[in-house]
Design brief:
Layout lengths: L9 E2 L9 H7 L2 H11 L3 E4 L2 H16 L4 E6 L6 H9 L3 E4 L2 H9 L7 E3 L6 H10 L2 E4 L2 H14 L3 E7 L15 H9 L6 E8 L6 H20 L6 E3 L12 H13 L1 H4 L29 H10 L8 H7 L3 E4 L10 E12 L5 E5 L18 E3 L11 E6 L14 E3 L8 E5 L20 E6 L2 E4 L5
Parallel strand pairs: 2-17, 3-4, 3-10, 4-5, 5-6, 6-7, 7-8, 8-9, 9-10, 12-14
Antiparallel strand pairs: 1-15, 2-11, 11-12, 11-16, 13-16, 14-15, 17-18
Length: 467
């Protein structure tokens, strides 16, 4: 029997995921994978944060080459492991936190306050008070939030370090729920007591991955900086949020072929012929409902394109930042966790639907490997431990999970199992560290959440978030 985890399963139109060396070493040891599931349950989320330092270093190299002072703040919401904070700090990065718990964990883990930005979409008084006391920067989104912050600052006598979140209104930039237009902020600041506000930055959050949208945001922010400085606010940075791209797939040709075939034979490739919201099979992002698992740019080349794009006919973004003596901040999550996670799950059963569709059930549920994307377009890997029970005949199948609903599909793509499926087999979902493990996980049916397990030298241990 082959020990190659790629040989036992693939999509009808294959979508082969990139892997890291640590993943290949672990999966070459089926018995160790069995032991991890026996110790921590199924599914188990495995995290090795060593690739993160490489990603941070790459972004800094790109920025330095353009004369830009870059601050990388890893989006904590991308993964709940406390080990992510430790890895970010060790790599010289900060964290972007989206709740009081994320802020509290970051402070307790020793992250310096100057390396924390609080970007939560909704901020209660406890979060505002803790950020004030710690000295973390608060990204303020709206007038009501500003009012609450001023009241908290006045009560405590502390000065808040603030980044105003801008709503970017420009041709081609999608409408957003985040922030306010610069003109609205100027009006609101004129009507409140700013004695306890220290506006140190401007911040924006944009949907998607378009370089042109980030340039439009930076252009608007840099126009606003001199106005705030003239009012006495020491604006030192512009934060362009996240959205740095990740290439999950090893081969662009597979990405193109999948969408071409989905357009011509959907019932052969997906559950009930689901076209996954496809609008243009030739586009880099053929469906707006699915993450672009293959992209023409990776995070480093994307940042280079942003910095070398022109603000106007005379200056690039990098030159504009230098003229204003501004640092550039960013808040990548997925791009920093690229290659940092695997999810393992045991096979539970093999069967067919009442109309003959083959199913492979796993001991997990669909929220435990899911983001806001309509589907995860990466082939799983497959492990068959020695001495397992005999597999079924070769054939196709859909992966389903533990929730008692008809559409409990872990992947919406039809998979092929050239050597069948065994009861003791292990499904491996690749590169799940960024947004796929935790962003939507649910304990519905009172099923336990997956254990979060981190690499510790040559062994594995449960992350502090589970303790």
């Amino acid at each position: 029997m082959t020990s190659d985890p790629r040989a036992l399963v693939h999509g009808i139109a294959p979508l082969t995921a990139r892997t890291e060396p640590w993943m290949d070493r672990l999966l070459a040891d089926p018995e160790r994978c069995v032991q991890l599931l026996e110790e921590f349950g199924s599914p188990v989320n495995l995290l090795d944060f060593r690739p993160l330092e490489r990603h941070v270093r790459r972004l800094h190299e790109v920025a330095v080459a353009q004369g830009v002072d870059l601050g990388v703040f890893v989006a904590r919401k991308a993964n709940k492991a406390v080990g992510l904070i430790d890895a970010a700090r060790a790599a010289g990065a900060g964290v972007d936190v989206a709740s009081w718990t994320e802020l509290d964990q970051s402070l307790r883990a020793g992250m310096p306050c100057e390396r924390i930005i609080v970007s939560a979409a909704v901020k209660d008084r406890r979060l505002l008070a803790t950020a004030l006391e710690s000295g973390a920067v608060l990204s303020i989104d709206n007038r009501d939030e500003l009012t609450d912050l001023i009241e908290e600052a006045g009560r405590s006598g502390l000065t808040a370090r603030v980044a105003l979140r801008l709503s970017i209104v420009a041709p081609g930039v999608a409408a957003t729920r985040f922030g306010l237009p610069a003109q609205q902020w100027m009006h609101d600041l004129d009507s409140v007591d700013t004695r306890h506000l220290n506006i140190v930055g401007l911040h924006f959050h944009l949907h998607g991955y378009a370089v042109a949208d980030r340039v439009a945001g930076l252009r608007e922010a840099m126009k606003t900086v001199p106005i705030l400085r003239a009012q006495g606010h020491p604006v030192r940075f512009v934060d362009m949020g996240g959205g740095l791209p990740v290439r999950y797939l090893a081969d662009e040709r597979q990405w193109r072929d999948f969408w071409y075939r989905l357009g011509s034979e959907p019932s052969r490739l997906t559950w009930r012929g689901d076209t996954l919201g496809m609008t243009d099979p030739t586009a880099d992002r053929p469906s707006p409902e699915v993450y672009p698992f293959w992209q023409p740019l990776d995070a480093g080349t994307w940042l280079h394109e942003v910095l070398t794009s022109h603000l106007d006919q005379h200056r690039t973004v990098a030159e504009g930042l230098a003229e204003l003596e501004l640092a550039l901040h960013c808040e990548p999550g997925r791009a920093m966790l690229d290659g940092c996670g695997l999810t393992l799950a045991r096979v539970a059963f093999r069967k067919q639907t009442s109309d003959g569709e083959p199913l492979v059930g796993l001991f997990m549920n669909r929220t435990q490997m899911r983001s806001t994307s309509r589907d995860v377009l990466l082939d799983p890997l497959w492990i068959r431990p020695d001495g397992g029970r005999p597999p079924s005949e070769p054939g196709d199948g859909f992966l389903v999970g533990a929730y008692c609903i008809e559409e409990e599909l872990l992947l919406r793509r039809r998979l092929r199992f050239p050597a069948g499926v065994g009861r003791d087999d292990i499904a491996v979902f690749v590169n799940t560290g960024g947004y796929l493990m935790h962003i939507l996980e649910s304990p519905s049916h009172q099923l336990p959440l997956a254990a979060t397990v981190v690499a510790d030298g040559g062994s594995w241990r449960r992350d502090a978030v589970d303790l």
